């Protein structure tokens, strides 16, 4: 059989530890209940095995004691060699002495005010990224509609933009789906959830994130190809771009799903402590690194072309227009991911959540703004069609008025 690796979410490690200890203790209690008690006077048969919510106390005769050590859990109990004792009396087990919170030096737990403040913080975060993704989805759908409706905007460059917009739409939808599946019902224990629906939601989310990064990579690759191969038709490369943008993430996610099913089919697959998380993380870091190299190379090529005396002013303006959006997006999307990738997942959680959820939720709106709404070609086409529509309406009104007058 393949080796199994149990990788749990850090927030759930405590819950799962106590559940495992309780399951082992209940198994002992079950086996004792099936064994007939030895003959003896009532009340003198001893204390049976008991689970008190923290430790498992093995059975002992009346008048004897049992000692246990503190649970070995990071960030819950401080390391202490003190023992907790319980006596077996005729009335049953005595209370633990000393109490766990004294003997084990329980880590300081935040006050109710701190807990409420933390809950309010996460509620605020959710409201912010929900507004951000909603705004981005509306802007992206509008941008796709603009590129699709106007025939003069149908070209390879805008086709790539549409795919890029679609990846942002999938990413926003994946966030909403993941929230609906994992966190909509507060009665469900997220730490023990291991349903097909939650695994499918996480898989769709990972695919959307990967596709988002790889279509950003395609945008950079297309820009570099356009600058290097000026006289080459860009239509011949469109299927390669589609294969990279959608195919590579699909292959990566399939490998990740098979790996999780075979080696680590535990929980809801939303943990980032497993070694198999690198099946997703490594391709993302690779896309960011390649994009950064493209960013440097495009900057170098652009500087050479602008300085070249053989390039006319119109071509220089065209190069500036083509590169402006991508040069802004590549460092904007990649820098903070590279910074966070250098640290473990549990470091800088608040900053990571803020960048990836709050600021990340508005990236789709920023993309639609740069590539569509602030695009001079798009603005000119909208103005031209708006003028045609106004002229048509005025002509229709004039014809109607003329018909009424002549009638």
Description of the structure:
The protein has a three-stranded antiparallel β-sheet, with no helix packed on it. Strands 1-2 form a two-stranded antiparallel ribbon. Helix 3 runs antiparallel to helix 4 and helix 4 packs antiparallel against helix 10. The N terminus is likely disordered. It has 407 residues and is mainly alpha-helical. The chain starts with 12 loop residues before the first helix and ends with a helix. It has two domains: 86 residues, GPCR, family 2, extracellular hormone receptor domain (Hormone receptor fold); 251 residues, Rhodopsin 7-helix transmembrane proteins (Rhopdopsin 7-helix transmembrane proteins, Up-down Bundle). The radius of gyration is 31 Å and the shape is elongated. The longest helix is centred in the first third of the chain and has 38 residues. This is VIPR1 protein. GO terms for molecular function: G protein-coupled peptide receptor activity; peptide hormone binding. Keywords: Cell membrane, Disulfide bond, G-protein coupled receptor, Glycoprotein, Membrane, Receptor, Transducer, Transmembrane, Transmembrane helix. It is found in: Cell membrane. Its main location: membrane.
């Amino acid at each position: 059989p393949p080796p199994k690796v149990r990788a749990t979410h850090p927030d759930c490690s405590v819950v799962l530890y106590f559940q495992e200890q309780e399951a082992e203790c209940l198994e002992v209690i079950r086996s004792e209940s099936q064994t007939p008690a030895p003959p003896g006077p009532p009340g003198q048969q001893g204390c049976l095995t008991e689970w008190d919510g923290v430790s498992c106390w093995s059975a002992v005769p009346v008048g004897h004691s049992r000692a246990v050590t503190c649970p070995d859990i990071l960030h819950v109990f401080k390391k202490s060699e003190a023992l907790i004792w319980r006596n077996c009396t005729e009335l049953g087990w005595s209370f633990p002495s000393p109490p766990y919170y004294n003997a084990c030096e329980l880590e300081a737990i935040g006050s109710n005010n701190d807990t409420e403040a933390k809950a309010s913080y996460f509620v605020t975060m959710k409201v912010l990224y929900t507004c951000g993704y909603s705004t981005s989805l509306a802007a992206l759908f509008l941008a796709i509609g603009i590129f699709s409706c106007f025939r003069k905007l149908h070209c390879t460059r805008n086709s790539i933009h549409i795919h890029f917009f679609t990846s942002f739409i999938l990413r926003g939808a994946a966030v909403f789906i993941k929230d609906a599946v994992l966190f909509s019902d507060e009665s469900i224990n997220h730490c023990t959830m291991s349903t097909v629906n939650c695994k499918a939601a996480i898989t769709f989310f990972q695919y959307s994130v990967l596709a988002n990064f790889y279509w950003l990579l395609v945008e950079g690759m297309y820009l570099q190809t356009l600058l290097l191969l000026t006289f080459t038709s860009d239509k011949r490369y469109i299927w390669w771009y589609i294969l990279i943008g959608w195919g590579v993430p699909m292959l990566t996610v399939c490998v990740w799903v098979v790996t999780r099913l075979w080696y680590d089919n535990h929980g809801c697959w939303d943990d980032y402590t497993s070694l198999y998380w690198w099946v997703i993380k490594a391709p993302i870091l690779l896309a960011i690194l390649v994009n950064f190299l493209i960013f440097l190379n495009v900057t170098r090529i652009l500087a050479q072309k602008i300085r070249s005396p053989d390039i006319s002013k119109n071509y220089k303006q065209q190069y500036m227009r083509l590169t402006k959006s991508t040069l802004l997006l590549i460092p904007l999307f990649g820098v903070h991911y590279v910074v966070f990738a250098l640290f473990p997942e549990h470091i800088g959680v608040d900053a990571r959540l803020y960048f990836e959820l709050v600021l990340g939720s508005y990236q789709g709106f920023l993309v639609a703004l740069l590539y569509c709404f602030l695009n001079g070609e798009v603005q000119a086409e909208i103005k031209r069609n708006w003028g045609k529509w106004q002229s048509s309406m005025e002509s229709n009104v004039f014809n109607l008025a003329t018909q009424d007058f002549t009638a």
